[in-house]
């Protein structure tokens, strides 16, 4: 398992080419490359040319850091056909950038619209008809997260959509901060997904269903919103013993093709210390889960 840093909290304080050295300084051997205005921004065409990609790969080599995963967020399931076609073009360039960075793992979101689930699912499969051969030809695996406000938000429903593609190059992401939006129980999802689970994002969140649904109040009542946070481990309601224990049960922690990412976005003002804290917690809780399983055996 590769343990990676999501450098999003440092976008305003460090340049793109400084991320690898920063990750090394914080103790990480791996980076997850998330949307950045100079590389692959949200929703629009990638902005990196081949020179910048080579410079970033060189910066990684100098720092002794590898890119474990690349995460584009593009409108490949959007029911607007012109935007969907554009997203497919953007995806092709993002795949090439990933390959040129020496990375074989991508992860993303389903996108689309929850109020138009059938139309969005049809667009998703249409996009994948064109993209899946590219993933397979390039030897790239893509794992997909049912993000809150996507056309599919539930854990087991997302697995069914992935399974429908019938390809070993497509799998799943489990984002701990989305736990209380996925409807199904974490262990149920992990056991069902099994070795299709390739990427997990580690950050805490509050359970918005708590206090009979009144932990968060929006006005007017009944607003169609999704609320979650990306807090550091221990600041929310995620059951971390269950999370790490479940990952250990399905073999995620001991595979060489899996990625665990620290993805805390709520503490930019304390991002250096939080990133170190996250790394310590992920390592300690991984070992705790392994030891607990060993003692039971």
Question: Would you kindly provide a written description of the structure presented here, covering whatever features stand out?
Answer:
- This protein has 297 residues and is an alpha/beta fold.
- Helix content is 40%, strand content 13%.
- It has nine helices and eight strands.
- It has helices at residues 19-25, 50-63, 81-100, 117-138, 155-163, 186-193, 210-213, 240-249, 271-296, and strands at 2-5, 30-33, 66-70, 105-109, 141-145, 170-175, 197-202, 259-262.
- It has an eight-stranded parallel sheet.
- Strand 5 (141-145), helix 5 (155-163) and strand 6 form a beta-alpha-beta unit.
- Helix 1 runs parallel beside helix 2, helix 3 (81-100) runs parallel beside helix 4 and helix 6 (186-193) packs parallel to helix 8 (240-249).
- 44% of the residues are buried.
- The model has no long low-confidence stretch (mean pLDDT 95).
Which helices and strands appear, and what pairs or packs with what?
Blueprint lengths: L1 E4 L13 H7 L4 E4 L16 H14 L2 E5 L10 H20 L4 E5 L7 H22 L2 E5 L9 H9 L6 E6 L10 H8 L3 E6 L7 H4 L26 H10 L9 E4 L8 H26 L1
Parallel strand pairs: 1-2, 1-8, 2-3, 4-5, 5-6, 6-7, 7-8
Helix pairs in contact: 1-2, 3-4, 6-8, 8-9
Using brief descriptors, characterize the structure shown.
297 residues, 8 strands, single chain, globular, alpha/beta
